[in-house]
Design goal:
The complex is a heterodimer of chains A (64) and B (252).
Chain A lengths: L1 H15 L3 H19 L7 H18 L1
Helix pairs in contact in A: 2-3
Chain B lengths: L2 H31 L2 H27 L3 H27 L8 H13 L11 H28 L3 H22 L8 H23 L11 H20 L13
Helix pairs in contact in B: 1-2, 1-4, 1-5, 1-6, 1-7, 2-5, 3-5, 3-7, 3-8, 5-6, 7-8
Classes of the chains: A mainly alpha (64), B mainly alpha (252).
């Protein structure tokens, strides 16, 4: 069990790096895109807008 | 070659070249100070491990439904791309020290000399372990980029060829100069790779989630330059911030 937990933790750190809020934001942005697309409305604008916002927020956190 | 295929080849080549420079610095530092044979055995074993990972995951990835693959690939490229882009922008703005291969080489050789007695016979465990870990960790990110890009456009062979060409160019250059490749414009390359990975992540992530891009594949011709312009604007914004420079030699 310990080994599984350690492996999962190492995989999370490898993927998310030192900026987990951005990784969570990416997943949320894809989820919002799927919800809007499912309703039949245009959803292409969500990802570019979310990515620029996530990058600005990430840079603001790093600047502090 | 189509637009996405050309983007794939350029992205994989640049990402792989940057990681290969970092891995080569570690292998050179340990080989010079400890043992060439152990350092090369470590690097070779790591390359074999990476080949096994790519060989095992490649066919499994291509068997996934295209939309599931695109969401997964898009999310992964976005997470990696945004990390590369954030660090490159902070370095371009002077808020983080540029990654200096000469400084990284000096730090690695210092650590190798301080690591205790050298094993004259057989394998030197320190040299083997440091080379293995360095090549495996730098290579793992590239292996994921090769697999995700390649699987998404069903061109894993093209992605692997671009990665192989990048490693070959870096290793041959390293052998020719027999020194860390300090003159490589690493941050500019990282900024470029960050923009490309993030742009493809936006495109495939959106498409996999069900969005339709105006103009289809041609939307990439707007996303890539648009993100580059936004990134350069962010550098200008960051440059107005008070300086806070971190030490050189930190991870990519």
């Amino acid at each position: 069990m310990k080994r599984v937990r350690a492996t999962a933790l190492a995989a999370w750190e490898f993927v998310a790096g030192d900026d987990w809020p951005t990784a969570v934001g990416v997943v949320a942005a894809i989820g919002v895109t799927a919800l809007i697309a499912d309703s039949g409305a245009a959803a292409w604008w969500v990802m570019p807008t979310a990515v620029v916002a996530l990058l600005v927020l990430s840079l603001r956190r790093a600047r502090r | 070659m189509s637009g996405p295929e050309l983007g794939l080849a350029v992205s994989v080549f640049l990402a792989c070249a940057v990681e290969a420079v970092e891995a080569l610095t570690i292998v050179l530092a340990v080989g010079t100070t400890r043992s060439w044979s152990s350092s090369l055995y470590g690097a070779g074993t790591a390359l074999l491990a990476l080949a096994v990972i790519v060989g095992a995951l490649g066919p499994a990835l291509t068997a996934l439904p295209i939309d599931v693959l695109r969401v997964g690939v898009g999310a992964l490229l976005l997470v990696f791309g945004l990390q590369w882009l954030r660090k490159a922008l902070l370095r371009a703005a002077g808020l983080r020290a540029l990654h200096d291969e000469s400084a990284a080489f000096a730090a690695e050789t210092g650590a190798a000399r301080a690591a205790g007695a050298l094993h004259k016979d057989g394998i030197d465990p320190y040299a083997f372990a440091v080379s293995f870990k360095g090549v495996l960790l730098e290579g793992l990110e590239v292996a994921l980029i090769v697999l995700t890009f390649g699987a998404n456009v069903h061109r894993i062979g093209l992605a692997a060829a671009a990665a192989g060409a990048a490693v070959l160019v870096v290793v041959l250059t390293g052998l020719a100069v027999r020194a860390p490749l300090a003159r490589v414009p690493e941050n500019t390359m990282k900024l470029g790779v960050g923009v490309l990975l993030t742009s493809f992540g936006i495109f495939w992530g959106g498409e996999g989630a069900g969005a339709s891009w105006p103009g289809g594949d041609a939307a990439l011709l707007v996303i890539v330059p648009g993100l580059l312009v936004a990134s350069l604007a962010m550098v200008a914004w960051l440059r107005r911030s008070p300086a806070r420079v971190k030490a050189a030699g930190e991870p990519a």
